[in-house]
Amino acid sequence: MTVTPAPRSQAGASGVAFLLQLERRLRLLQDTGEILSLSAQLLGQRLGAQQVACFDIDQSLQCPTLQHAWSEGLAPGAAGEYFLGDYAAGLADALAAGQALAVSDVASDPRTAMPAALATFARLGIRAFLNIPIAKEGRLAALFVVHSSAARLWHADEIELAVQVSERVWSTILRARAESRLRALSATMETQVAERTREFGRTWNVSPDLLGVLNLDGYFEHSNPAWQTTLGWSVEEIRTTKFFELIHPEDLPRTHAAWEAANQGQPALRFENRYRHKLGGWHWLSWVAVPEGEKVYCSARDITVEKKLEADLAARNSERERLWRSAQDLMVAIDADGCFTAVNPAASAILGWLPEEMLGRSLFDFVLPEDAAATRQALAQVSREAMPSFENRYRHRDGGHRWLSWVAATEGDLVFATGRHVTLEKEAQSTLLSMQESLRHSEMALLQSQKLEALGKLTGGVAHDFNNVLQIISGNLQLLQMTLDGDPLAAKRIASASSAVERGAKLSAQLLAFARRQPLKPLVTDLAQLLRSTEELLRRATGETIETRLLLADDCWRALVDPHQLENVILNLAINARDAMNGQGQLTIELSNSVLDSGYAARHADVAPGDYVQLAVSDTGTGIPAELLDKIFEPFFTTKSEGEGTGLGLSMAYGFLRQSGGHLTVDSLPGHGSTFRIYLPRSLEAETELPLQLGGPVLGGKETILVVEDDVQVQTTVVDMLRGLGYVVLRASDGESALAIVGSGVPIDLLFTDVVMPGKVASTELARQARLLLPQLAVLFTSGYTQDAIMQGGRLEPGVELLSKPYRREDLARRIRHLLANGRHVTALHQYRAQLAPQPAPALPEGRHILLVEDNADARAMTSELLAMLGHTVLAVGTAEEALPLLGTPGLDLLLTDISLPQMSGVQLAELAARDYPQLEVVFSTGHAPANSGVLDPQARFLVKPFTVKQLQRALLPPGQ
Prior knowledge:
Blueprint: E1 4-5, H1 13-27, H2 32-47, E2 51-57, E3 64-71, H3 86-96, E4 101-103, H4 115-124, E5 128-136, E6 139-148, E7 152-153, H5 156-203, E8 210-215, E9 220-223, H6 226-231, H7 235-239, H8 252-263, E10 269-276, E11 282-292, E12 295-302, H9 304-326, E13 330-334, E14 340-343, H10 346-351, H11 355-358, H12 372-384, E15 387-395, E16 401-411, E17 414-421, H13 423-483, H14 488-514, E18 523-525, H15 527-542, E19 546-552, E20 558-561, H16 563-580, E21 585-596, H17 598-603, E22 610-619, H18 649-659, E23 663-669, E24 673-683, E25 704-708, H19 712-724, E26 728-732, H20 735-743, E27 750-754, H21 763-773, E28 778-783, E29 791-792, E30 795-796, E31 802-804, H22 809-836, E32 849-853, H23 857-869, E33 873-877, H24 880-883, E34 894-898, H25 906-916, E35 921-926, E36 941-944, H26 949-955
Parallel strand pairs: 1-7, 19-21, 25-26, 25-27, 27-28, 28-31, 32-33, 32-34, 34-35, 35-36
Antiparallel strand pairs: 2-3, 2-6, 4-5, 5-6, 8-9, 8-12, 10-11, 11-12, 13-14, 13-17, 15-16, 16-17, 18-20, 20-24, 21-22, 22-24, 23-24, 29-30
Helix pairs in contact: 1-5, 2-5, 13-14, 13-19, 14-18, 15-16, 16-18, 20-21, 22-23
């Protein structure tokens, strides 16, 4: 935009004349408003402007006070509008330095061409202006402004004239203000003096303030009695002592300054100093002194106590400030809206937030949502009464939270609160409670475990003695049955007694299961398949009125467990459920995988963390009362009516599962049924088949057997059984006697010894030393109470043969025949090797590639060596599981396998071989007659133990040769 030059006002002499005329007219005025009004009008008209105004500047250019404005063509603006915003900030330094500013066009001048400033100028109708600052003692005191509604060029003489007018006007204003204050003060003082004169007589003597009339020489001509009361000095002492002599040295400069001001005519003085007391010490006095003529009228009040209180208050405030800044606890002030108005520096250390980041924000921006309701309730409570203690969680800057324990009180509209950081205490308390709870559970579990352990030892000992008694009765009944000569009544009675013995044996087995002393034969078992195979049995046991459901997960893990014993446990739980439902309800058996963590293990002392197969048996019966849950696993405890149960079912299940490394729990709610959960450790091995059971006819022999039994009656019964089978029997009552017989040189084929033996030589040590003397000696243990001597982890040690009491004559005969056959077989193999060793047979061109499967290590080694001597190539393993991957070995001609193997039997191995490798020949090696071997194939080839070299060679010939 083009700036139009304004018509120049007359300069030079006319300007000086204008100033003289203005000054003469201003001297006639005393009112500030009139001075400003006249000067603004004359200057505006002189410069051809539309508005002239004067502003007082109290603190900064941002906060001006409009004193007066003359306008002609422009609307007067409100105080502060013109100077707010970026414009004032940009020009503040120049104005404060006393520089006059001239803007010819606000739209083009870079100092004003900001959007916010232009909007203000447009609203006020201003296009050009002059700013004339008045600076006094280095501070901007006032600002004169000249506004033009049109853009114009300001000339130097116009600016100089505005500056001269501003200076003169401001000087006139200051003079007028001073004279006004002086007149007002003089009038006030006159009034006060007149009033004092009237009341002097009444107040002089009774006033507690120190009153006096001081002459210009510094002596009090008059003083009231309060001087002596306050300072101990008499009227005469005060009159004859120059007042400077009684003032504290540190206060003399201040007092001298006041005295000089009074001498120079300052109408009223106020100051403080310390006066010496006649008896020593100093008193603070607050003075009001009014000079009048050659006198100074004084009044002083003793403010010693107030000064002390001020000092104490200052000290306390300083102490509070130090406490506020150095306190480790969080200190805050909260207004009625719940916003922080003050936060001490501890916020940074505790919460990670700077105090300034929290100021003005709601406390609920920091309180965790879960604690918000309780915090609001606490705030409502503290508004009515002091809050003794309250805890909540505050959000930390790092995303976590911190626990704070608060005490709070109100003062006015604010709540002042102190929060102690208690996160570590809360965590420690939580850990302690968890440890205490865990310890309580552990103590209860330990007590229960110790109780059941003690009961287990007791029942195990009882079972041992009971089994010995049953063995005597059973053996004699079987011997007696052999002597019957067609007497049906005697046979019936013997059968009844034998049935009672079997029931007693079952009861004893349950006691041993609880005591964890039963011999287990664990196999890697698919529990889902086991449950499917027993489903029909379970339905028959529970009855048609019970709905039985099997819920089996598809991907259940395998477990290492004795399948027969587990079937008994499941059947027992099902029968208990049937009885609890009174024959009507739903039985649910669920199978799933479960991972027990360390937290669960901490609450159950008898289980370790890991992978488990969970088998849950649930019913809809009457449930079990809570006070009985800790007793249900104790032997002989039952909730059934008398005669309906032995109380051994659950105790047997508990002992069996503990012995198997498992875990058993029960959840029950009276009226809603019970759930028993069985946890068995997961096995990563391949599933194994059930071992082949020994069968066939009862055969005896002519071998010599050494029977070692400390119970005389049991010993007699066993000896009679074995002699009835044709064996030569030697007997001993303890390990030392048995060793003496073995060391005598008498040929012995088998050692049959009780596990629990008196004396210094234990049964295991007896077997070890006997085999050193007789390497081919077969050993068979028997016991009614299996001890750890022949067990490892609740299971029989590898290679140990055990016949549990009470046993039948048939079981004894078959087991001894099996062991003797294996023993003779190994002996014969040693003999054949010795015969062949001096003159080894040449390698036959028709030598075959043979896979030998034999679980007896000695027999396997001897047979392998014989086959090698006969020119054959041999792969020898101890189990069917080891043999399976070798069936596909290139060039393999023949599988030579024992039938009785530890897990999968030789018969099952042969079936798999025939299915996958039909060209592979199979020869079964067994100590039983082929008819009793369990092999159904009539074309099967057998090698009966013990065999000769010729028999071995003949068995290996290809079919048709």
